[in-house]
Amino acid sequence: MLAYICKYTPIELFESIDVEMELMEPEVVQFNRAEALLHPNVCAYVKGVLEMFADLVSKRDDVEGMIITSCCDSGRRLYDALKATYPDKFIYLLDLPRKVTPEAVKLFTKNVSTMISAYSEHTGRAFYSDGMIRPLKAYLKAHPPALQSDAPADAKVNVGLIGARCSQSLIDTLHAHGAKLLFNVTCNHLARLFNPAEIGRLEDYCEQLLAQFPCMRMAGAEDRLNMLDDFEDKLDGLIYHTVKFCDQYHYEAAALKKLETFHVPVLNLETDLTRQSSGQIKTRVEAFIEEISANKSKADTQADGEAAPADTPEAVKLVPAEHHAAPYVLGIDSGSTSTNTVIIDGSGQLVAWDIVRTGAKSILSAEKAMHQVLDKAGLKREDLARIVSTGYGRDHLPFADADLTEITCHGKGAHAFDPAVRTILDIGGQDSKAIRLNAAGDVVDFVMNDKCAAGTGRFLEMMAHTLDVSLEELGQLSLKSKEDIRISSMCTVFAESEVISLIAENKEPEDIAHGVHAAIAGRAISLLRRVGIEEAVMMTGGVAKNPGMVAVLEDQLGLKLRIVDEPEIVGAYGAALSGLEQL
Amino acid sequence: MDIVHRYGEWIKNKLPDNPKAASRYIRLGLRLESFAKRHLGDKNVPLPYRDLNCLALDGMLHTLEHPESAAWTNLFTPVEILQNFDLTCLSIEMMGSFLSGFTIEDWCIDQAEAEGIAPTLCSYHKAFIGAVDAGLIPMPKCAVTTSIVCDANLQTFRYTADSRHIPTTLLDIPNEKTKDSLAYVVKQLKDWIAQLEDLNHRAFDLDKLRDTLDRENQSFEAYRHFIELTRTRYYPSTLTLQMFVLYASHLIIGSPEALDFFKRIETDAASRPVFSGKRIFWLHVLPFYEPALKHAFNLSKKYQIQATDMNLDYNLPLDLDHPLEALAEKMVDNIFVGPLDRRIDAERRLIRETGADGVISFNHWGCKQMAGAANLMKKALSDTGIPYLILDGDGIDPRNSPEGQIKTRLEAFLEML
Predict the structure, then answer these.
(1) Which residue of B has its CA nearest to A95?
(2) Does one domain contain both A291 and A166?
(3) Does the pTM of the predicted model rise above 0.90?
(4) Strands A537-540 and A423-427
(5) Who among B159, B183, B401 is closest to A251 (CB)?
(6) Distance of alpha carbon B280 from its chain centroid, rounded?
(7) How many beta-carbon contacts under 8 Å exist across A and B?
(8) What is the pLDDT of residues A390-405, one digit of tens each?
(9) What is the ipTM metric for this complex?
(10) B147 and B187: one domain?
């Protein structure tokens, strides 16, 4: 068996002489072995391949080696690392031109021939002397291209997938949530289309191989996005996938953002192809599908001749309604730091709310929170017509009737509290997000931070700990700052050591506190910029209660943030409102 | 806060609403800096270096003031061809360094990231993109890049220049030197020259190119001799100056000014006192702003950075009878092209030639080829028996250079020597 990584590998040529070819599609748990050879900042796919190949070699004795193309800087270093680690295997670097000119085809054909000779020498097998064209032609005739057919039976929405290589679990997640893939043009997911009638020489095959739908490293890639023109009417949403530390596709994702002629909602999704990232993928894909399904049903209603309902509810005050009546709906936001609950009545009025610290077991905190809020409302469990959960623990609450992502719920909650809000910044304990709404309160775009703690409430907690003050004191301290101190490191661990050096330099704690807040504000604003800042801007989440943070953010943004009295319950309130709509 | 930071803050405040004014301030800053270096320069810095510094500042200023005769390039672009058409170069790396010099790189980088450019991308490229999109850099006559070393080159020019209909050329450089691969590059050079002839309404002058390559050969002979001299002599330098040498060795190489610089340092070094400290051979770019490194190396009599491998990235006299073939060969033979084994052999030779007592390999943020190579190179070069330090940081953005970590690692390494 020969492993390969790139769609420009001449796999048909090897398969025609009965070599088993296996595409490397790693979904690993850790990069320990890879990071001993390569720096952690090398592309996640390449590190994954190193891990996977090591597993393959230890489990199977038919692994002959790997063909690597000179596709990218990380790919070339994958070759170097494999070559150094497996000197006896057939580890081959096939040089791949970036252009598709006659000279490039000639060069590529030469490179392919040289590779076949090297393989022949490695295995001791003699191959056809006529450039292997006869078996290749027979093979191509016997193996016409397989068309992609991956649609779930109950498809709700049509999506396209473009960008860097994706894992099978992303495709499975899309299918599981009722998305039909109209196309998937990420690496290695394209059908391999050859025209055997026009292949008379090896050079013809090499030319067709080079002239595939180009990947970003090819010279012709500037026209890739033109393909979207044919799909614009058929797509409900587009997913742009990027891989951590593979920077090439971000350029196209950024160009797509600037493309004024494309009006389909886009989800930018970044993964590191580990199994751990699948949880994050799930939240984002779910939120996206909720968003585009809502758009779709609204568009359908409008197409049926019904006008969209005038959607300008009054801003909800944070006072429990004095008079309320059944049905009652409970929204519960199970977050990493706090579990927040809200009960509303049939008219959407607030009846009661509560905030509980999330303990080691989120289910116990959720049950406690539910009992407390029922007590506050003077209601019983049986009085609740519906329970809707949100937050990262939303799937694990057996008493919930439905669940929705916190993106959709924050959008709904914020819009109900203040219909003027167009942009939301939510800084939570474990992640932070920026969400943009339209005038009707629908989510039109959102981004979330990376999975590290930079720019989250957890970062503030750690810095407060380092400065030996409480979280409340940290915010107050910051307001008294007189000197600008820049905490440059955004990595929590490095920032901690920076703060320690500042303490050693006898810098004032209030100035350090201010520096810490300014660092997070910088992160948050870059998230906001990615969705576009449109006023009014609301801040939600526990960190919105920190006056130091709010002051720095308002200063840097040059605008006044809208914050409700209990910014932590916005998501839960949104969940409850969705529950009411479902009744 | 020092004056440079204040100036940077001032430019940053102007940037969002008035990029034209910010751009004017940058040009004014370059002019002031050039004046200051010419008349108030540090007398401990050798005169040829001070003059090179002014030359680079003036060159940068020229490209910003006369964009109609400037080409955007990267460090490995065959500028010899551009000189034939009297086009000056504004390289991504140099622009990034100047933005960092003005301490406005952070603003530009944040701007690029806000557009959706990867935060994990090389900071030179992010700063360049942010500056272009903010309107700080005027549009050039054309843009040209090679595929040498860095994946980002093609992408950045596609994103900034090609998308704005600036004539953009990629020279695709293969991994291995063969007859076919050289022919592939020569054909690309010829196509590019034809484009430049159209664009500039004038014919390409092969004899002029021969003269350029002749000066280039002389320049490198002088530089190699200089390196040999500094094995025993003290020639004061700074991190910034090592980066400025890249201007001479790459962006104006082949020009009379570059030849003059290399000849002058060669002559100057011969009359310098004996150096009794430790010699460092540097791999990759140098973070010229980094406090601990500045403290250790700038004009130090104890530690001298001999050279960075980027200034010695190829090693053959160019064949004046076949100038285009010679340029093709120069690019394919660059030590950063091809499998790592080739680079390791080249580094081994350079470590020997520079007489280094220690090697510092700088892992510049976002550089994937360096991140992938560092550990493998360290292991392979352990047979030289010379201490080898890998430093993580960023060539221009202090936010990716953990100060405390760099200081501790560097000090421990210098204690080791």
Answers:
(1) B175
(2) yes
(3) no
(4) parallel
(5) B159
(6) 18
(7) 170
(8) 988 888 888 889 888 8
(9) 0.94
(10) yes
